[in-house]
Design a protein that fits this description.
Rossmann fold, OB fold (Dihydrolipoamide Acetyltransferase, E2P), 5-stranded antiparallel beta sheet, 10 helices, 29% strand, binds adenosine-5'-diphosphate, binds magnesium ion, ABC-type polyamine transporter activity
Length: 388
């Protein structure tokens, strides 16, 4: 697609370019955002995903112009806007704390940015009507924000943010305060708005499901840096770091030593085959990551397809979750894992019994073991599962 090409091409004159941007807040020493580069294509739905404190809000605030950049630059359609005032950037924003004007009706709230732009009255009325239709609030035009539910208030905020057709819409956890059902509903509304408007959407969340559902691409933030950028399936199927693998979805993680020439990971007791190993990892610690739906369980090891990795495990628990069973596994080296079985298919074992676990090595990713890097902090939970 031409959009994807744009985002990777140098000299991106259309779209939004973040080039080597850092932020060090006054009175702090560690950067909140640390040398982030990202190209966002026109019309793209991109999500900044990461845990609390990873720098998402800081990055979005620098894009919007609410927070200054300490280093690097931000370009919109080829123009450096790093020092431009927020209103000059022509971006719509819906931040968590971005409240509506409480004394103004829904209509007046939505009309506000158009009045500021000195648009003629008749045109304002038409644009507001169109925005009300977009967020399905035609019936609520005359109400005050206090007469609306939380979800309806966020719809008004969305309508107000897009009514003047900004260059892009920036949203910081806009669904954070809503309960599950309303969240799901508004998620679908946001996806529909994106399709209808064809506008660039930049969305911030710490919720992996929200990110996977909505985004064309996701940038995973960790400690102020981007760990990986890719489509939802890139990140899920081909995580490049242990952080990405563990932040998005569940996985079983086998730790060992990478042997590139043999094409294997040498774990304590077994050596899974590993195609496409990164040569830079040779001789150092690696983690083979496998998603639950890729693990097959067999009572009879004879049924494992040739070429697939196999290892024995004890079933620790079986949890029924509606359309599938989650099967907890403990491997001989102490690694804990989980497999998923579609409900209605026979389970090969009950808790306490042993099974053979197998998977296609094509469906596994081998990433560097952060616990093996002398400079990295050693996270306690990753050490606990280390192969012996
Ligand atoms: P996120 O949105 O991912 O939770 P933030 O961008 O809010 O992350 O915060 C990133 C880091 O910057 C955190 O360590 C936070 O404490 C720090 N931080 C955020 N805002 C400020 C500020 N105004 N002054 C100093 N430190 C800040
Ligand atoms: Mg935040």
């Amino acid at each position: 697609m031409s959009q994807a090409d744009h985002s990777k091409s140098p000299g991106n004159s259309h779209g939004i370019r973040i080039a080597g941007v850092s932020k060090v807040y006054a009175g702090t020493s560690r950067p909140a955002v640390d040398d982030v580069s990202l190209d966002i294509a026109p019309g793209e739905f991109i999500t900044l995903l990461g845990p609390s404190g990873s720098g998402k809000t800081t990055m979005l605030s620098m894009l919007a112009g609410f927070v200054s950049v300490s280093a690097g630059k931000i370009e919109i359609d080829g123009k450096d806007v790093s020092r431009q005032k927020p209103h000059k950037r022509n971006l719509g924003v819906v931040f968590q704390q971005y409240a509506l004007f409480p004394h103004m009706s829904v209509t007046k709230n939505i009309a506000f940015p158009l009045q500021q732009r000195r648009m003629p009255k008749a045109e304002i009325a038409a644009k507001v009507d169109e925005a009300l239709r977009l967020v399905h609030l035609e019936e609520y035009a005359d109400r005050l924000p206090s007469q609306l539910s939380g979800g309806q208030q966020q719809r008004v905020a969305l309508a107000r943010a897009v009514v003047y057709r900004p260059r892009a819409l920036l949203m910081d956890e806009p669904l954070g305060a809503l309960d599950r059902k309303l969240r799901d509903e508004l998620q679908r509304e946001i996806a529909r708005m994106h399709r209808e408007l064809g506008m660039t959407f930049i969305f911030v969340t710490h919720d992996q499901h929200e990110a996977l559902t909505l985004s064309d691409r996701i940038a995973v933030f960790n400690e102020g840096r981007i760990e990986q950028v890719g489509t939802p399936s890139d990140l899920y199927e081909r995580p490049e770091t242990l952080f990405v693998a563990q932040f998005l979805g569940e996985s079983t993680c086998f730790r060992g030593t990478v042997d590139v020439s043999a094409g294997v990971l040498r774990c304590g007791g077994f050596t899974p085959r590993a195609p496409r190993l990164d040569a830079g990892l040779d001789g150092s610690g690696g983690v083979a990551v496998v998603r639950p739906e890729r693990l097959d369980l067999h009572s009879d090891a004879g049924s494992v397809p040739t070429g697939h990795n196999r290892v024995r495990a004890t079933v620790t628990e079986i949890v029924y979750v509606g359309n599938h069973h989650q099967v907890g596994l403990r491997f001989a080296d102490g690694t804990n894992g989980s497999a998923m079985r579609v409900a209605g298919r026979d389970l090969p074992a009950v808790p306490g019994e042993e099974v053979t676990v197998s998977w296609d090595p094509e469906h596994q990713s081998v990433v560097a073991d952060p616990a093996d890097e002398p400079t990295a902090e050693r996270p306690a939970e990753t050490l606990g599962a280390a192969a012996t």
